[in-house]
Specification:
alpha+beta; 165 residues; five-stranded antiparallel β-sheet; 8 helices; 48% helix
């Protein structure tokens, strides 16, 4: 059964609110002026986040997370505001569209790579509501001696360590 966002996206695509990129319907929701555009595509009736660049669409998923890194280079609240406004303009439900952005999967993938600058960027982008779902990815950073001390301290600050641990 299709969800609210899936149904609204299908209607938006049928109304001509999107374009076809790489043979896929693509609705741009975030454009930072770099040529990369981020938005939604409908795959088997399901709304999926995608990135369009030079006529190629890449669906978000395992192995493609790094292609969405640019989103984290922008202020989180600004991105959320832009996303909600773009969703409203396209006739999509704002909250469902906002919550559909794969924050947890994107941040988890970057943290798991252990690149200090990407880890710092990812941790800085989080809101308090994101922390619970990412704790298992954040907590190990605090004990990773291969990372800079300030990054380990940042990760420790974002997680509540169990008593005695």
């Amino acid at each position: 059964m299709a969800g609210i966002l899936d149904t609204a996206l299908a209607a938006a695509l049928e109304s001509g609110a999107s374009e076809t990129v790489d043979g896929r319907p693509f609705l741009t929701l975030l454009d930072f002026g770099t040529g990369r555009r981020y938005g939604l595509s409908l795959v088997d009736g399901e709304a999926r986040w995608a990135r369009a660049l030079d006529g190629v669409v890449v669906l978000f998923g395992p192995g493609t997370e790094r292609r969405f890194l640019e989103v984290l280079e922008h202020d989180r609240r600004g991105v959320d505001d832009r996303l909600e406004a773009a969703a409203a303009a396209a006739g999509l439900p704002g909250e469902e569209t906002l919550f559909s952005f794969p924050v947890d999967a994107l941040v988890a993938a970057l943290l798991d790579e252990r690149n200090p600058s990407d880890c710092r960027l990812a941790l800085s982008w989080l809101l308090p509501t994101d922390l619970r779902g990412l704790r298992e990815h954040i907590a190990p950073l605090a004990d990773d001696s291969s990372l800079p001390l300030d990054l380990r301290d940042f990760a420790a600050h974002l997680t509540v360590r169990p008593a005695g641990g």
